[in-house]
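Why do we bother with holo predictions? Because pocket geometry can differ from the apo form. Keep that in mind while you read this record for beta-D-glucopyranose.
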Amino acid sequence: MNFRPIALVSLMALASCQPTVNQVTSTQDNNPRSAAVIEASVESLLTQMTLDEKISMVHASGKFHVNSIERLGIPEMWLSDGPHGVRQQIERHSWNYAGWDDDHSTYLPHLTSVASSWDHSMAELHGHVLGSEARERQKDIILGPGVNLARLTLYGRNFEYMGEDPFLAARLVVPEIKAIQSHDVAANAKHYALNTQELNRTGVNATPDERTLREVYLPVFEAAVKEGNVYSIMGAYNEYNGTNANQSKHLVKDILKDEWGFDGVLLTDWNVDINTYDAAMNGLDLEMGTKVDSYDDYFLAEPFKNAILAGEIPVSVLDDKVRRVLRLQHRVGMYDPNRKTGQRNTKKHQQDARTIAANGVILLKNKPVAGDPVLPLAKSSLKKVLVMGPNADKKHGQGGGSSEVKSLYEVTPLEGIKNALGKDVEIITMRARSAKLSPIASDYIASRHWTGTPAWNIGYFADEALSQLKEESWIVDAQFNNDTAVRQHIRMKAKLAPLATGDHIFKFGLKGTGKVTIDGNLILNVASEDDYQEVQHTQALEAGTSYDVVIEYHGVDSVTLGWDAPGNLFNSESDYIAAAKSADAVIYVGGLSHGDDRESIDRKDMVLPFGQDEIINKLLDANPKTIVLMVAGSAVEMPWHKKSNALLWGWYGGMEAGNAFADVIFGDVNPNAKLPITLPESLAHTAPIMLDDYSAETSEYKEGVFYGYRWLEKNNIDPMFAFGHGLSYTEFKYSNISLSSDEFILDRDNHLAVEVTVRNTGKRAGAEIVQLYLNDADASVERPNKELRGFGKVHLQPGESKRVKMLLDQRALSFWDTASNNWKAETGRFDVLIGSSSDKILLKATFDAVN
Ligand code: BGC
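The structure, written out:
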């Protein structure tokens, strides 16, 4: 156990040695959090600080620490990841875990799940748990929420964010931030801005045009600042128009600070490519995580001080940064003896995690088979249930990178199903494997990528002899697919840790030449470059020992190392098909894991790993009532979706995921979530791929404002499941659209109310998310056919009707006008489209915007 030394100095004590504070606060204002008191105290501290002390406040003094100044009673500031729980403690000066035994915290459903609820109260609940737990762990800044948008389906970090739509994410980020900050800890909206791929994340240059930037990528941050009053923001790794985002004059100084009036702290992501002058002058406040030997070598440390002493940068620039850091510290109560203390790992927080997860599960399909819809399953009708799939019993909390969470427990889907059904129902679990050679499962790989994901180190060489290393990286599976036309020379290395002792049959499948060694001994060698070949070798291995396995490959195609491990790990096809036919219910829990959804690497494609498509297809043929539950953080291709009758999407649902999924499967919770992303049929339908705009060098954002669902609509491509889609166990009827006026007089303070009636026409209580899309029929610029501009969630008993009211303001009508460099709402006709999803518009009305 290790606790943070608390160096709290009460504002009163501080005030007593600082006459200026006493003067400004006067006797009427004793609230230590009032703006006047805070600003007076900040100024007072600032005037007493030496140059060195000021400099020490604008860069890190530990992995997640900022310096204390004891003589002035300024405490050390503590930061921590991340968006879905407080990360386990990291050592002060290294990335190793600190080894605390009391740094568990509630592992919350990911923000994708919150976004699926389209529900302010879920965002609020999420924020309350995160904020309270961060405070209990004595953090001052919690590094979340993550709010970059899911532009690229392959992006490794989609799972951390709030989906693809700027409006939806902006509406939900505000309650999330307010709730976090109500616990006396600063939220941190990250990563500002345009962090939409992991491929060369620290070097890729984002160059969207100004309209795209303003309409798509900035509104969430804008809402975080203007409405959420977020105390801190993290800059992005990538470049923007040729310079690192943290030091971009346009993004930081001009927009974030001057235009939006952000008065909090802009801190860097951990180790960004900046320089002292630009970072200092353009508005970066706090530098974290830079990979240098001494904290004095940070760009905002000695080099900054020297630039000030040399007269190259005025000291007022430093003062502004220190002021912001001190302001944040006051805002979160670091000088208030009555600062909140937070709570952690409470039953209530665990229950909240379950509630949020259940409210984020999307029912994508629920067709009748032999009369009735497959879902929900009636517990009483079940005697035998078959549960399969790679995510059936998988935990996800401690993977993915910086957003990992060490929780006290994590209920897997299988455990949740068992908890729900009790002992009287027989639950059969089986593991299937695809007919195609599968790579050795990551469960056996002891070597780890820094994100915690089991991984192989892969080296790319310039020569056949593997002597000139070009590049090194990580790959999760024992499989390499060459996606270039160029012959590759690669070496993959991993530590393999068998789970059972006995004969393991290694299977090597490749087109090209290659070999495999174990602890330096050659076991497989393919020297002739024929068509695809598969060779095998039997090797005795011991459980509890780890072996160095090396694969070498030369060729233009692919190589896979698979195996048969002892212990009947996989059931035969005939066994699982027979079980699927005879079971009362079949639940397949598939999707991705943090082997795929993870920081620092994008996925290669949208295909489900481990040949899941093949197994799901077979199960659906054997039993059309098979329920497929996807657990994933970003879109996947589901080529069998037309054949499936019951399909759920559950996201990474936190520590109570399994119970929450069971709540939905067995009908204790009626699904009430909708997709916050588009699920396209295939990767080939997505804008970055269609426009050849995904590369390590530049992201031009060529699709412009035709982003996400707007892209598919513009190109007349049907999605697999549209943005906003999600079903319920009951049904809803929409009627009676009304507008408060058929004219909108263009004025910043004007509002137009749109109301519709929603009736629950089914037999269960449920909730519907009504969506309002706007179409600017007379626009002078090209605009998307539909843009989400409102939504409302309504809970209804069977037979009940309610009016749902949504408000439009002038900004909702506007586009970013590059001529005036401002938002512009034009006169003319607007169509109000009310839908249950972006592709199911049920009601329409029009109004005219007039001057
Ligand atoms: C991530 C941030 C994270 C930081 C600190 C970076 O790699 O991009 O999101 O907060 O590390 O762990």
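Residues 81-82, 143, 190, 269-270, 402 surround beta-D-glucopyranose (CB under 6 Å).
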